[in-house]
Amino acid sequence: MPGLAADGPDDPRGLTTSVTDSVAGTFGARYDADGELNEQTLPGGYTMTEAKDPDGTAISRTYTRDSDGTVLLADSITETAQGQWATHAGTPGVTASQAYAHDKAGRLSQVQDTTPDAVCTTRAYTFDKHTNRKTLATSTSTATVGTDCTTSGATGTLTRNVDGLDGNLTATTTKTGGVILQLANLHGDIALQLPADSSAAPTVLDYDEYGNPRTDQPATRYGWVGGKQRSSETPTGLILMGVRLYNPGTGRFLSTDPVPGGSANAYEYCNGDPINHFDLDGRSWRFARILWRNRRVQSLANNVVAVGAIAPYAVYAGAYHVRRRHRFGRWGNSYLLTLEIAGLRADERLDDFKRRHLWRHEDTYDEHIHGSYCPRFMMGRRPGMEYISK
After folding, report:
1. pLDDT of 81-96, one tens digit each?
2. How many domains does the structure of the chain reveal?
3. Of 39, 80, 186, 353, which alpha carbon lies 20 to 30 A from 313's?
4. What parts of the sequence cross the membrane (predicted)?
């Protein structure tokens, strides 16, 4: 019976340094001084290393073969002052690069996608005032420059998913003992499927910003955001994102958002910015950087809990002020996420505040105004959600 064993005796902070799967093999981890995972060893003699910026955001990831140092996959990004991806370069078996542009509302408006044969395809997106994607203009020109689960296929084959120490899909195993490493890029897309059997050919995968696969690419269960185990093995070939199906061709969900005000409208994906945002459960988008990993954010959240229930209001006021000035700047978004985390923690730990209260605020964009909500504590206010849309 397949199983997992974990231990962490080599790290005085109690962080897990090794996980052994009885089929896939042993996964190891090393952490930096702040407890962030920056290196992971994989079964078969491979190592993943990450480099982070001062805020703790991963800006490069490299997979190498230990025996000779061969680079199997390299992925890197640069960011704008607002913390959004400006450029991306990856070598998932082939070299490709993308340059991104965003409009004043923070939505992805243009992608310049350069393929290995030096062809640059420009995709431009326009939106209406409700962030419905109106057009996709494409022009092409030649450039001059852990937890596991078991699934059964239609033929009766069994596949187990094995998570690495970073919590993402890292390997799949079969009932005969076969192991395929799932190497993900910085966005969480599976970019290379590497069989442990050296006689088997690896599979190279690549996707555009909305999750559309490259031409003539083989179908696979986990591809775009496959590190989070979002499957495209649905009857229609769409991607199952939690409670809803997502269509990468249109960049929209097929059903309405169960969370009122979870995004710019009930169907669109991640406020028009699929590079910097995720909506993995179909219930409203979250920042792709997962700013909770930001050490400053984490420290501030702990301090909020320590000083009591009045702190979330102060954090909210500061965040709201920054968002008004910088239009979804990195720090404004960080503080809002801090408020959410701190609110949930305080909700659990403080006897006087047993439930979560939501306070309305509005964000004004150049093209539209939409309502949104975030956790707040207020004495005498009835719990619930409020959402105002203009």
Report:
1. 888 999 999 875 556 7
2. 1
3. 80
4. 300-320
